[in-house]
Specification:
The complex is a heterodimer of chains A (609) and B (345). Chain A has 609 residues and is α+β, with helices and mostly antiparallel strands. Chain A is 21% helix and 26% strand. The radius of gyration of chain A is 35 Å and the shape is extended. Chain B folds into 4 domains: 107 residues, Orthogonal Bundle (PTS-regulatory domain, PRD); 61 residues, Alpha-Beta Plaits, CATH 3.30.70; 83 residues, Gyrase A, domain 2 (2-Layer Sandwich); 46 residues, DNA polymerase, domain 1. The chains are: A alpha+beta (609), B alpha+beta (345).
Chain lengths: 609, 345
């Protein structure tokens, strides 16, 4: 409960109480006026917290502040005259702050403000005016068209997708050795841009393309956020990109004067990968540019001194022992060596960097996203002749499932489809900035343009099925949407295993792509087989395809024995019996028995024939 | 004959892992419940009740006392038809604590007396008189309590020891002044068929059953162990089923009754209420390995070693562990006549 105003009102400066005032509201007003007049710094903020009956003055760093136009007596301080002067560039933004026309508020002072969205909304109680209504969104969201038509969670999703978009991240990408980089072949400026997009000049570093999108299903291939791509469009370069990856290594120095050497490793090297693996290296031990490489190829040949000191001294040989430490292209990777550089790092060690480029043509499994938080994975690339087409012969680049719209409420996506289509027909880009003064009338404008060009005003078109040649029963909403190709691509992720490496400790298959691992058949998956009663399938999964081990178990004392190959007998080390049975158990169980033994418990295994 | 066949056809096949299926059927919707906890609108007693996943965990863990006990008290026919009569019984049951009707207590240490100033407003709201409160307080504390000026209560303690007086004050402020301890706030509700019954946000059925007019045979509580004590294991099993069902239904989750009954049966099969967990069902497993695989591995192994236990490998977990076929489903059948040994090709 709020304390009575008659009680002492403490004033806190940067969180520390420095005194109290009798009339906090008047006091706060006084401080504010002093700031506006320039007596106090424009960087201080003052707020009266009514619930606490405290005045908070903050001058410290780290506060997020936002500019507002000051409103006094129901009138905006930014008058027409000043606005005109601004337009003529006679005065700048600093002038507005110095003259108390614009001020920055922090989170606390905002609590004392009543901000009018537009000049028309100003009432007697208004204290401030938004510089522009779009500023209720952030910079990223404002680069998307019609954000006011979308639901807030979709804005968040768009903001995270745009970070993953492939585009032209830097114009000097040819000179850069990024550990991972994506360059879109034909970036385009969106048909519908926004003020923020133009101001940031994002068109100069575009990260997407304008797709012709038919809002329609396609034989079930675009269910549940899948999309269908047109093969012909892909062949013409739609969303095509290049993937760059840099491999680097350096000649490290070790205590004791030893150091790594970049060279073609001699066949005597420990861990030699075979002559074939090094065949693409040039004499200096590093691969040449424009050399095609596949998995298992060595990019940088390097020999390192042995891990343990004794090994280099031992054997007595004159030649120093070395160990292979080459950089090998990882499984599933391939491409062409783009560039190679030699540099020296601060520790005066020689560093080699090899950049490999690899073409990424859109394929089933690649991820795309529009500017409305609508993402989709390619499920099918359809040959041109099987795609739907319009009367004029327009074939969509992408088929977008209409079920993606209602629950997600991304009406901006639909408006962009319509607006970009109208803009394309008109031949100019159009503006999709939030809270445009025209509001919903924009739809009518787009309709008029489309109708003038002989289209349906709502963007609907008769589409013909490319397979049967018959028109679809319903008209289909078709237009242009700006799509981003996101950097999640199957070719970088897919992995397969039938047989392969196992862990040393457990004899179970390894996990993870880098280790050529399998996918874990976990506890819940196991329960499913148990529930189904599929006992042999379960055994195959848990034993035969995992850590099957054949052990000898003593028939007399139940402990694990071994086979003495020299004497050709089976021996139990505990009771010296020679009667042992060959039993198939999981290696994990053998390990468990060992661990139980380490607890000083002696497990015995009983067996039945 | 047809019925016999139908019964045979609808019964579960031998070797069907019904337990795992029941666990999965209950566990899968459980994952959805974590994310959404909504409360329904309704009677005060049910609105604050523990619901959703916490309640299910409470039931399966066989907690001795539910975190939000609820009692439904049905009345004998002659009382159930009139609101006034039902309300009278509700007032007898409804638990009221001193703390909720008093303003403050003033101690007079030199005289060994405590003056309790009552809150007239809440007294009125709870339909209590100072005389009633004084009488009940005297009984509860075993001291002399009478009504003084302005309807306040004076407690004479017969002692002038500072510590003892203070102890009595604390006791007095925590004492109940009306109703049955633990019964909670009781309110009269009308069923669809017009019958009046009492719903209460607490549970203590033993004394409530003694109250005149209460139909003891129909009293319901969500307190498993109270039901078990009073009505026996079958009633407790039914309470378990009803509570599980209700909790799931409140969340718009439908689980087949057979799964719920199976779980309830498993928990009550030995005549007592067993929790699902290391102290209950899992802890009673025969296999050492199955127990060790679940929780407290080393403890189970050491115990087994100390008593020289044998694992007969009859369960699922232990057979998967060693890599044998599980004795369920297709693994539950074995050849009776084994192929004769010998004759190698």
């Amino acid at each position: 409960m709020a304390r009575k105003i008659t009680e002492k009102c403490y004033v806190h400066l940067n969180g520390r109480a420095i005194g109290y005032v009798a009339d906090p509201i008047a006091y706060v007003g006084e401080v504010r006026n002093a700031r506006r007049k320039g007596i106090f710094s424009g960087e201080i903020n003052v707020a009266y917290m009514e619930k606490l009956n405290e005045v908070h003055i903050n001058t410290d760093r780290g506060r997020v502040r936002k500019p507002y136009i000051i409103v006094e007596g129901g009138k905006s301080k930014l008058t027409k005259e000043i606005a005109e002067k601004m337009e003529k560039k006679e005065v700048d933004f600093g002038y507005l702050i110095r003259n108390g026309i614009v001020e920055f508020l922090d989170a606390e002072e905002e609590e004392n403000a009543l901000v009018a969205m537009t000049e028309a909304d100003i009432t007697d109680r208004s204290t401030h005016l938004e510089v522009d209504p779009v500023s209720i969104f952030g910079i990223t969201v404002n680069t998307a068209p019609f954000p006011e038509m979308n639901s807030a969670p979709r804005h968040l999703m768009f903001a995270s997708y745009i970070k993953q978009a492939q585009g032209l991240y830097a114009t000097n990408f040819n000179l850069r050795f990024e550990s991972r980089a994506f360059i879109l072949f034909y970036p385009q400026v969106p048909m519908v841009t926004t003020t923020a997009y133009e101001t940031l000049k994002l068109g100069k570093h575009a990260a997407g393309q304008n797709f012709v999108v038919a809002t329609s299903t396609y034989y079930g291939y675009n269910m549940q956020d899948a999309v269908v791509l047109n093969k012909a469009a892909v062949d013409r370069g739609l969303a095509r990109s290049m993937f760059y990856k840099t491999y680097a290594d350096e000649e490290r120095r070790y205590p004791g004067g030893q150091k790594d050497m970049v060279k073609v490793p001699p066949a005597t090297t420990e861990g030699y990968l075979g002559e074939h693996a090094y065949s693409k290296l040039s004499d200096d031990g590093v691969i040449e540019p424009e050399m095609g490489v596949i998995e298992g190829d060595v990019l940088i040949g390097k020999v390192a001194p042995p891990r343990f000191l004794e090994e280099s001294i031992g054997a007595g040989g004159l030649e120093e022992k070395t160990r292979d430490d080459s950089v090998v292209l990882k499984p599933g990777e391939n491409g062409v060596v783009d560039d190679v550089i030699f540099t020296e790092s601060p520790g005066a060690t020689r560093t080699v960097k090899v950049r490999v480029r690899s073409l990424r043509v859109p394929e089933a499994g690649d991820k795309f996203g529009s500017r409305h938080g609508q993402k989709g994975v390619v499920a099918l690339v359809v040959p041109h002749e099987d795609m739907p087409f319009t009367e004029q012969g327009v074939v969509p680049d992408l088929m977008f499932n209409p079920h993606s719209i209602p629950a997600r409420m991304t009406f901006g996506h639909l408006l962009e489809t319509l607006g970009a289509k109208a803009s394309a027909m008109k031949g100019t880009r159009s503006d999709g900035t939030a809270f445009s003064e025209k509001g919903t009338e924009r739809i009518d404008d787009y309709s008029k343009i489309l109708e003038a060009h002989g289209f349906n005003g709502y963007g609907d078109e008769v589409l013909y099925d490319g397979i049967t040649g018959k028109p679809f029963k319903s008209k289909i909403f078709q237009g242009i949407v700006y799509y981003n190709r996101l950097h999640h691509m199957v070719s970088n992720k897919m992995q397969v295993r039938s047989r392969g490496t196992v862990q040393i400790l457990t004899h179970q298959p390894t996990e993870g792509k880098a280790r050529l691992g399998g996918l874990r058949f976990g506890e819940m998956e196991r329960d499913v087989l148990v529930a189904y009663g599929a006992s042999l399938l379960l055994k195959e999964r848990m034993l035969d395809q995992s850590d099957k081990a054949t052990v000898l178990i003593c028939k007399e004392c139940g402990s694990i024995g071994y086979r003495d190959y020299a004497k050709r007998v089976e021996v139990c080390p505990l009771c010296n019996s020679n009667k042992l049975a060959e039993v198939e158990i999981s290696y994990a169980f053998k390990l468990l028995l060992d661990e139980i033994k380490s607890l000083h418990i002696r497990p015995q295994v009983g067996m039945e024939e | 004959m047809k019925m016999a066949k139908q019964e045979y056809d609808s019964s579960v096949q031998a070797g069907e892992p019904v337990g795992v299926i029941a666990a999965q059927s209950l566990g899968e919707p459980g994952t959805q419940m974590v994310l959404r906890t909504f409360h329904m609108v309704g009677a005060a007693a049910t609105a604050i009740a523990t619901s959703g996943l916490p309640r299910i965990i409470e039931l399966l863990d066989a907690k001795k006392v539910p975190s939000s006990p609820i009692m439904r008290v049905y009345l004998k026919e002659s009382y159930a038809k009139s609101f006034a009569k039902a309300d009278e019984i509700a007032n007898k049951i409804s638990e009221i604590k001193m703390g909720s009707v008093m303003r403050r207590a003033v101690e007079n240490f030199s005289k060994g007396k405590i003056l309790i100033i009552l809150n007239a407003q809440s007294m009125q709201a709870m339909d209590l008189t100072a005389r009633q409160v004084a009488a009940r307080l005297g009984k509860e504390l075993g001291v002399e309590a009478r009504v003084g000026e302005h309807g306040n209560i004076i407690v004479s303690t017969h002692t002038k020891n500072l510590k003892e007086v203070r102890a009595i004050t604390v006791k007095a402020t925590r004492s109940i002044v009306n109703g049955i301890e633990g019964a909670g706030r009781a309110m009269v509700t009308q069923a669809k068929d017009g019958e009046f019954y009492i719903e209460s946000a607490g549970s203590n059925i033993e004394p409530v059953m003694q109250v005149e007019g209460v139909d003891a045979s129909r009293i319901y509580t969500n307190d498993l162990f109270a039901t078990y004590r009073v009505f026996g294991i079958e009633a407790a099993r039914n309470t378990l089923v009803l509570e599980l069902k209700k909790t799931l239904e409140d969340q718009d989750i439908s689980v087949n009754d057979r799964h719920i009954s199976l779980i309830a049966d498993a928990m009550t099969a030995d005549g007592t209420i067993q929790s699902i967990g290391r102290h209950g069902l899992v802890g009673r497993k025969e296999s050492v390995f199955a127990k060790a695989a679940f929780e407290e591995t080393v403890k189970h192994l050491i115990n087994a070693a100390a008593f020289g236990q044998i694992d007969y490998m009859r369960g699922v977990t232990e057979n998967i562990l060693v890599g044998k076929q599980i004795p369920l489903g297709t693994g539950s059948v074995k050849l009776t006549i084994k192929r004769k040994e010998g004759k190698k090709k």
